[in-house]
Fold each of these.
Amino acid sequence: MPDAAAHLPFYYGSIARSEAEEHLKLGGMADGLFLLRQCLRSLGGYVLSMVCDLQFYHYPIERQLNGTYAILGGKAHCGPEELCEFYSKDADGLCCPLRKPCNRPSGVEPQPGVFDSMRDNMVREYVRQTWKLEGDALEQAIISQAPQVEKLVATTAHERMPWYHGNISREEAERRLYSGAQPDGKFLLREKKENRAYALSLVYGKTVYHYRVDHDKSGKYSIPEGTKFDTLWQLVEYLKLKPDGLIFYLREACPNPNMPGELRPPTMPAQISLPSSWAQPLRNLGPLNADGYTPDPVGAGKSRLLPMDTSVYESPYSDPEELKDKKLFLKRDHLMIDEVELGAGNFGCVKKGVYKMRKKQIDVAIKVLKSNNEKTVKDEMMKEAQIMHQLDNPYIVRMIGVCEAESLMLVMEMASGGPLNRFLASKKDEITTSNIVELMHQVSMGMKYLEEKNFVHRDLAARNVLLVNQHYAKISDFGLSKALGADDSYYKARTAGKWPLKWYAPECILFHKFSSKSDVWSYGVTMWEAFSFGQKPYKKMKGPEVISFIEQGKRMDCPQECPAEMYSLMQQCWTYRWEERPGFVAVENTIRSYYYSIAAKPENGPDPGDRAKAALP
Ligand code: ADP
Ligand code: MG
């Protein structure tokens, strides 16, 4: 994830308070001289260090849940740069306004944080090993789940640090610290299994001191009365810079003799191997709650089910054994059809079922044509099947095959959460904006895949986005979809049919031209539906009224709880001329950045006492 301040000339990265003060001294100590540095305590936060009346002031800047940045008690801003700009015009509670940036001397780059240098590799290795993914499936998992996996990695990163000794007794800790040289500041961190707590053991004056590490209700770590941190490795890094109540600051790690490889940041090799224990927290999934969370025995926070934990992330045919049997037409005796109806349409109904494969049984949804159906209806379903047959992406409902028996049936992966619009309408009070952004990002990934494969969907709408669970969406209903010729950028319909006009771009209605760009228009309408919790677009307007509404240059308003960034993306999707409209590569990129910016923040509020404390000279 990019550092939002990386481009700023007065940003120093991960440096200590004392170092910041050195730079400000060298900078001349004028009133309003300031610099920005990385906050060591909260993931994604910063500290503004400045001078006033020859004194130093340090203000922590926290990243809020909605992706904005704010000094405690101050106004929110969309980035650290905007925040500094604001305080250069108005002190608004600071010691004085920001006047002059204390820029880095030439040749000095921002100091990478311990975690920065290894994060990307760790995320990749974590996903690869935990879910045994390779190739596209691996890439898609990383893109769609980076914030969640980063959080998982961040909260377990200490297990890879040489100073982490796991569950050893106090006596064993002393034995290890007393063996060999005993310089001041030699330390280790150990786990206390009984109450899931930790302890820090530290040498000073040839004596070992032990400190309890508290883990509070919001999930933060601290030594008693000390500063609170999101993760254990941040606590340790901070205590290396500042004793914060310890008898001495942490200096030299007492290396764990049982640590497999030498793995010391920041000199991480490009290829790292993680111990199999890293895969544990997710493989030991217990039964799931309805909302897709695993119950957490300790109550310290819910661990969430990721798309990769479900059986429909990869195709059932990604297993080479199963692939051997793959055919378009399925055997009827391998298919069990339940009476339960999942949905209905003009074609017939969709039923629940189970399909028996070589090694496993899978839950399926079966689109059953009404019996005595005419040939044209059968042809249409076969066309839909031919399209789906060519697609394989985690964010698209996969077809397992077709079955011709009592009637023609299309057998698909099961997405038991049902259509997005209905789900959101029924869970209005429980679903957060960032949850919707996450789901719409997944839809954009599926659509980017379709665009790349040269398919047009032509019926993208919230009713055709199905949920596997609250955090996993798939695009479905390829009844109107077309594969474009290799040289074509659009499909031209000869005659207008029963079309979902409210989702269609002007060129579809006026010229019957359908392209990925017209799917982008529909994606904008789908976003609007999602951020309105499943409301119908264009209220009570009829198709023709919608057309004149659009022709007049009007567009739907921003839904009540929709972030400005997301409304702005909708508006781009509703660019009148398709030549000027963004494609799915750009759409996915935009929503990805926004999604990462809001999802990276740990889900707990800032510490209220902090501003006053930190602002003391
Ligand atoms: P139509 O062309 O009539 O819109 P759809 O393919 O959208 O047909 O399916 C109709 C309904 O059936 C959906 O709204 C949904 O409730 C249910 N359905 C379809 N496919 C699945 C699936 N793979 N898993 C679960 N439910 C499904
Ligand atoms: Mg449908």
Note: The chain has five domains: 17-101, 116-158+263-307, 163-253, 313-413, 419-614.
Amino acid sequence: MVINKIMLLKQNKKIYPNILILDSGVGGLSIFSEVIKILPNANYIYVFDNEAFPYGEKSRIFIIDRVVNIVYAIYKMYTLNIIIIACNTASILTLSILRRYFLCPIIGVVPAIKLATKLTRSGMIGLLATTVTLQSNYIQNLICKFATCYNIIPISAPELVILAEAKLHGEKISLLMIEQILLLWLKTVNILNIDTIILGCTHFPLLREELQMILPNHIQLIDSHKAIAQQVLYLVKQSINYSNYSIIPIPNKTYYLAKNDKISSLIPHLNKCGFYHIQHLLL
Ligand code: DGL
């Protein structure tokens, strides 16, 4: 079997890694859309934990327990080749734990602090993220490692997560709503001469256009999504274990944790992303 797959590769035939992408909600779709651009031939399994959404205000233990259980539930159903924790909040808390228990490569997303220090001119950087992310030791360590000579201004905006979620559920959201959420911060951004804002939550790139419209023109919004997509591609190319890869494509699948009437309003967007198989996941 292994030899067959290597021969297939040599003949340039396709193989399809099974890739799990997990978030509390729709934020992970912003990562998915970058990954699928450079890796169209993969079997994607997108899981969103709408039962415990939002993660950003929950306790550390709760999030760890939740994420480990969800990954385990999917792990039992599929031969996973790559796991992407497409949520800053969950990555910061669970990556090291997950890597102890699950053997396949696990990629997380964390705020692009290092990149921001390379791009800022004023040295004033805003970090827009959830409360859990901003209060984590992980972020403090990242700042100590890469940004001691810069000012990182924390901007906590849990309401923005809800708004991004609403947008993809087809609800009308307005610039005024975002302005109201960021009212205090908009003043701070100007007073402190912030020129770079890190989108430290995967939900926020879904509001990039709106944010760009209400922020001063010179402010650049950055995230690590493209870098993550490259990392996934690199892992697939480097894999020494192609024997685990599927040689047939399977339809992309979505799993949700809570059955509720909000699911139906998300279906058009999931379909647009190429997810037609949408199922309930029981833990
Ligand atoms: N999308 C998640 C993140 O990147 C968090 C959203 C939430 O609070 O659930 O942090």
Note: The mean pLDDT is 93.
